[in-house]
Amino acid sequence: MTASHTVKLLVAVVLSLPGLTDGFQPLFLFDGKSATHRDITRRAVLRKTAEVCRDMAASEGRHFSLTIDDSLTVDKVQRSCFSTSTFMSLLSSVRFQTSLLSMYFSNAEVDIVSALRKENHFDDESFLKGRDIITVGVSAVKASVKMKNFNTGRWTLGRVCHTLQDFYSHSNWVELGNIAPYSALIRPDQPLKNLAGPNTPTCGNCVGQNCGNNLLPEVLQQRLLTSGYFNIFSSSKPAGKCSHGGSFDWTSKQNPVGGINKDDAGSSHGSLHHKAADLAVNATMELLEDVRIAVGDKNFLRLMGLSQSSVPYFVTDTTSSMSDIIAEARGISFDVIDSRRETHEEPTAYILAPFNDPGFGPPTNADVFKNNLNKFFENGRGDIPELSLTGLQLALTAVPPSSEIFVFTDAPAKDAHLKSTITALLESTKSVVTFMLTDALASRWHHRSFKGHMSKSDVQLYHDLAEASGGQAIEVTKSTFSLATTVIQDSSASTKVTLFQEVRNPGKPHIFTFTVDGSLRNMIAYITGASSLTFSLTSSRGVSQSSSQPNGPLASYSTAGSLRRLSLNTENQTGLWQISVNSKNPYSIKVTAQSSLNFIHNLVEALEGGHTDFSLKEGRPLSGGNVTLLVSVTGSDTVKLREVTLFDGSGPTEVAGSLQSVGSGNFLVTFSEVPAGKFVVRVRGEDNSSTFQRQASTQIKTSSISLTAQASNTNIEPGSTISIPFIVAATTNGVINTNATGTFTMRINSDRNYTSTSPSTVTIEAGSGGKANGTVTLTVPAGAASGADVTLTIEAENAAATDINYVVLRFSVTAKVTDVTRPVCQVVSTSTSCPSSSSFCASSQWKFIANLTDGINGTGIERVTIRQGLGTLSTSTVAGAGGEIVTVVTYSASCCSQVVELAAVDGVGNVGVCVGRAQQSAIGAAVTTAVVNTTSNRGQILTSSFCLWISVVTFLLWTHINTINIF
Ligand SMILES: *[C@@H]1O[C@H](CO)[C@@H](O)[C@H](O)[C@H]1NC(C)=O
Ligand SMILES: *[C@@H]1O[C@H](CO)[C@@H](O)[C@H](O)[C@H]1NC(C)=O
Ligand SMILES: *[C@@H]1O[C@H](CO)[C@@H](O)[C@H](O)[C@H]1NC(C)=O
Ligand SMILES: *[C@@H]1O[C@H](CO)[C@@H](O)[C@H](O)[C@H]1NC(C)=O
C-alpha cells in the first residue's frame, strides 16, 4: 500500500491544562484612583461568572460559599466554581485568565482601530449608531457561541463592552441621576427616548476649571440624553452642544467651553468618574446576562474560559496492517475522553482534523468525536495527500489558546510551504504541538514503498515546529508506541506547567539546575538524544541516581526510541535539583509537572500619543528594540514575582526585565535589550515562602520587519468583502529606518477556502519614509453561516528569506440580524390554587400554561428554559391564527415552588422572559387572589408587571435550571 492510500488523522488535544484614548483608560492607569476598561470588565466578568456558578451549584444542590462582590479574583472564582470536585486539588486558571486578557485586549483595541469613530464611543450624540454597534455585536457573540467559536466570540464581546462602557463616561446618563444601566442600549426593539435634538443646546461654559454645572438646567429638567462632542482636528461642533473635554479635544476649547466626560478622576466631570464606572460594571453584567440566557450556562462559562477542558487528538494511519497501533491509539483516546466526561476536565470541544479534509470542523462533542474517529479508523480513505500542516493549521485556528495538539504522521509534509504560517499561529496562540513520527514503523513493518520515508530535512521540519512551540517530535516504533501515548496523557493534564526546556545543538555536556517547589506534583523529565547519552540526577537533599538505574530513589524511567521519560519522586525534596547530561550529540531536555501556579505572558506595546497605556502587540517584537510583556500570574493571589527573564539557550544568555505591578497579579515587564535569536520567557518568584520557577513553552523570535495590519471591523457579512490595509517597514534597533529600501514577499493564508487577494510583493521605495503600503482583501461567500470564523495570517518576508514577521487576524461571519424582537409570552392559565401555608405545600401541585411565539417574521423559538422554579416543563407546538408557530409550554410544580420564570430564546438569541406565580388560597377557602390573573382571560398578554420582558433578571435566586429543546 502506498503512502497515498493511507489516511492521516490529526486529532487536536485541547488541553486544559491564558494614544489618543477617548473613554475610560483601556488597560492601565497609574493614578491609583481611576477605573479602566480592564477594571470594569474584570469586575463584571468575575461577578457574573460567580453568579452563574452559584446558580449552577444551587440547581445541583451543591454548596457555594463565595461572597459575590468586587473583591473577587480570578482564582477565587475559579476555585469556587469547581469546589466540589475533590479530584481537583490542583486547578489551572490559565484558560480563564487568558480569556479575560483577550477581552481586555479586544476592548482596548477599540481605542486604536476605531479611535475616531464616534459611534464606537457614543461621542457626538451618536446614540442610535452606538446602540447598533452593541446589538449587532451581541448577536455576533451569540452566533459565534452557537458555532462553538468561543475565541472569536470573546474577542467580539470585548469590543462590544468597550462601547457600552463608554456610554456611561461620555453621556449625561449619570448626571441625570440614573442609578441603573440604560437597558435600551442592549435592546434593539426598544426606542431610545428623550434624546436631545440636533438643534437643542445642552451645555453652558465651564467656569474656569470647574465643569461641575455646565449641563443646561432645561436638559436636566427634561431629562434629555446627550453626549460630548469630540474632535482632535477641528474645534467645530453644533451650537450649544457639550464637548467631551480634555486637552486633545479641540471642540471643548470653543463655546460652550469645557466638557462632560468622566473618563478618569481628573476629567471634566471626574467627580462622577466612579459612579460612571460602577454603572458601566452593572451595564456590562446586564449584557453578559443577556448572552448567558441566550447561550445557556454551560456555554457561557466556556465563553468566559472557565472550563478545565481537555483532551482529544491524533493523527494516525488507518491501513489494516497498523491495526495494533490503531486499536491502542483509539483505546487511549477513548479512555481519556470517557474519564473526563461530565467532569470539569471535560474539553470545551473535541476536534478531529483529518489532513486536508474540507469537511473538518466544527468542533464536536465527545460522542460525535468518537463516532468520527471510528469512521476514520474503520474506513480507510484513499488518496489523501500528506497535508499534515494544513491539518495542523485548521486545528490551531479552532482550539483555545495554550492548547496541546498531537500530530501522528508517517510521511513528510507535502505542504511544507506553510511552515512560517504554522509558526506564526503557534506563536500567536501559544499552543504546543507534539509530533509522533511513525515513519520507522511504517516502512519497516509494512514493506511499503519508501515514498513516504522521511529524510533528515523532513524530520527537521517537524522538530523545528515542535521546538518553536515548546513541544517535542518523537520518533515512535511499534514497541514504544505505548510510551509515546503516555506522553499524550502527561501533556493533557489540565494543570501542566513547564519548569524549563532547553535544546543543546551541537550537543555538549551540561549541568542543568532547577527549583522544585512545594506546589508541584507528578514531575516528569523528558530527555531526547542519541542512545549513547547518559545522565545523572541529584536532588536537593543530595540524593543521586544515574542513567544506569532505571528505577532508583529519584526517578523511574523508560525509553522509547530517542526519548527517555523520567518520572521523578520529589516528595519532601523541594529546593534546587540538578540534571547532568553527558552527550556529544544534540539533545533536548524538558521538565514538566502539575501545579496550579503558572503564568501567562503577552507582548504589549505603548500606545502612541503620550499616554501611559499599552495594547496587545501582534507578531514578533522588533530586533534591537525594547520589549514589554504583560505577565499574569495564575493560581495564587499571594504570589510574589521576583524575576522575569528572557532566556536564549544558544548562548546561553539571560536578560532580566524591570517589573511594575499593575494589580490583580499582573505585571508590566520592560526589557531594554533582548537576546538576538530566539528566546523564551522565564519567571521566578515566591509563594508560601517557597521559591518557584516556570518557563513559557512558546519561543519568541525577533524580526527587523515591522508589519502592521488592522481591520476596521472584525464582523463580516456573508457575501461581502473586507479590505485590510497593511504597512511594511524595515527597522533598525527597534525603530523604522526611514532610509531603508527593499522588496518584501507577502503571503496570506486563511484557514477557510475564502477568496482573498494580496500583492505578492511590496517595495519600499527611496524617499517613501521607509514604508510600503498594501491592501489585503477577504471575501466571505454568500452562503457562509453566521457565527463561522476565519483566521487570516499575513506574512512579510525579506528578499533574502532570512526574516519574517506576521499578523494574525480573526474575523467572525455575521449575517445581518433582521429578527430583533423577542419571543412573546401569553399566559393561558394558571390552574389550581396552592395553600398559603407552606407546611401543606408538598401535597399540592399547580400548573402554568403559556403560549410562546416569535411572531410570523421571527426566527422561531429554539429553546425554553426554566430560570426559576423546581417543576417540570413540557412543550408542544401548534400553528397560531396568523400562521405563526406557537410553542405551548405547560409547567407543573409542587406548591412548595410557587414561582416560575421561563426564558425563551429564538434562533438568533433574542431572549424573552416570562414569569408566573401560583394562586394562593387560605387553607380550605376558595381561590381569591392570583398574581397572574389570567384564568378567565385566555390569551391576555401579560402586562409588564407580570411578565418581565427584559433581557436580564439579575437578582433572582433561581434554584433549578432545566433545558428543553423544542426542536
Ligand atoms: C450595581 O448592582 C449591584 C447589585 O448587583 C448594586 O448593589 C449596586 O448598587 C449597583 N450599582 C450601581 C451604580 O447601580
Ligand atoms: C515526607 O514527610 C512527611 C512528613 O514529615 C512524612 O510523613 C513522609 O513519610 C515523608 N515522605 C518521604 C518519602 O520521605
Ligand atoms: C528603550 O527604552 C529606553 C529606556 O526606557 C529608551 O531610552 C529607548 O528610547 C527605548 N528604545 C526604543 C526603541 O523604544
Ligand atoms: C538617513 O540618511 C540621512 C542622510 O544620509 C542620515 O543623516 C540619517 O542618519 C539616516 N537615517 C538613518 C535612520 O539611517
Automatic annotation (TrEMBL):
Domain Hemicentin/VWA7 galactose-binding: 496-596
Keyword annotations from UniProtKB, A to Z: Glycoprotein, Secreted, Signal
UniProt keyword Transcription, yes or no: no
Domain of life: Eukaryota
InterPro entries xref list: GBD_Hemicentin/VWA7, HMCN1-like_VWA, Ig_VWA7, VWA7, VWA7_N, vWFA_dom_sf
All copies of domain VWA7 Ig-like, residue ranges: 711-814
Location in or out of the cell: Secreted
Pfam families: GBD_Hemicentin, Ig_VWA7, VWA7_N, VWA_4
Keyword Signal annotated: yes
Occurrences of domain VWA7 N-terminal (ranges): 72-301
Signal peptide: 1-23
Location of the Hemicentin-1-like von Willebrand factor A domain: 314-478
Gene Ontology CC terms: extracellular region
Name this polypeptide is given: von Willebrand factor A domain-containing protein 7-like
UniProt lineage: Eukaryota, Metazoa, Chordata, Craniata, Vertebrata
